Amino acid sequence: MSIRIQRLAAAAAVGIGLSLSAGTALGQNKGPSTGSTPYAVPVAPNVRTYSIATVDNVSSADDTFNKIGGGTYGMVGVPDGLGAFDNGDRTFTVLMNHEIGATSGVVRDHGTNGSFVSRWIINKDTLAVVGAKDLIQNLNLWNGTGYTTFNTSNPLASGAGIGRLCSADLAPVTAFSNGAVGTPARLFLSGEETGAEGRVFAHIASGANAGSSYELPRLGKFSWENAVASPFQQNKTVVIGTDDSTPGQVYVYVGNKTGTGTEVDKAGLTNGALYGIKIPSAPLEDTAANAARNATPFGIGKGGSTAFSLQIKNTTGDVSGLTGAQIQADSAANAITEFLRPEDGAWDTKNANRFYFVTTDRYDQVKDGTGSQIGRSRLWALDFTDITNPTSGGQIKLLLDGSESLANGGLNMMDNIGVDKDGNVIIVEDVGGNAHNGKIARYNPTTGNVEILAKHDTARFGDIGTGATAPFSNDEEFSGVIDVTDIMSDSLLRNGLSDERWYLFDDQAHYGAGTTAQVEGGQLLIMAVPEPGTLCFVGGMIGMATLRRRRRR
Q: pLDDT tens, 52-63?
């Protein structure tokens, strides 16, 4: 038997240990550590989804795991931004935001309730959860002149902690290290989507200081969707922040790496200046005269581009002493461009000068045939002239203008995004309580094609014309999508082909029926998008193995 066939057979054998949903062949696979099948149903041919951990939010004993260090650990709802890295021992680490309010949930390891980051160790061959725990042990908050540390020994008052950590970014080491300057520690960035006074944090995920989180006042206060660091290795540190407001801005932080201080000092996250994206041709993505969202934004159509510049904030770029309201006022006074709800963003994996982001706008009823309201959710690219000199600006390009029909891959209310190793943009929808079934899609920037990869399980969450099944509702959203192909490159779950792609993501099932600790429903999942044709062989291997097992009974 060839090595390639051996790997395929091994993958088939592992597959026998995963529960296959009735009627879905290899489509939906229940992982060994959860009692629930995947909330995501494949749409594109040969796509496979796997559930890893679930909070069904119906009992206190739902999906509990070994806690790293001893005890048990329960999955908590409203999972959002994700990060992952290989541990080098057949397991990988997952970092997961939980977007719960500052007054919700129970007291966490950093001493108070509210939003937090969980840390998971997953077996890459079986997707079994080895263990989990809270990442944040020490929370360092800015007091105007320095940091005050809060933890179980010095806890914040209940409700005074972190609120609604949203999308996240675990950038490669190259984002924060360059030779003698910077830090090799993995930094997980995430911010509070809580309105104008939202803060942003760097959570240290590796090294001697793992478990410490720092507020980053130099990056500013606003309703943070995400803070995304450029992976391009240089002495400068470049982080783009998106303000999820209506309207909201896109900000660029530029700092300098150092060789001394804390991990965040060395990473260049405490000494830089904040700028706003400014499009001279128009201060607004849409105007009141464009109430129907039909006009071309900034005078450009789909595929078109126009220049943008970087407008420095607060004269010097130092916003560490400003409130969010003051930052917003400064942006308005300096005509920093306002977009229709900037959501998630991600750097291109093929072009260091390109940054993608989406604007959500509002639900398009016309596209779904459910009403007369028009929405224009759009995909943009910021093409910097030179990422080593980001303040020189560049061109902003409109890639998807929101008018695309459902038949042509049209999406509604784009939210979380990621870019895979091939340069494709993975996009999820957040339609927020509308009958539209939220989906995951893949956009190819070379061809402009949009492919729907998966959708929510209609039997649980419903769709247009189909109601949800209690306790589930139609208020559902996938989030946190990241490419983990390199991590899964040697997993026994692969089909033995080098171009199989793996995407890790989660699901926010917005219903509350369980304990105070659980808050809401949710699930951690992974999806495989294999080369066409391979699945037939693996399916046959699993089918034969299953048949033989039945005959032996």
A: 999 986 655 568
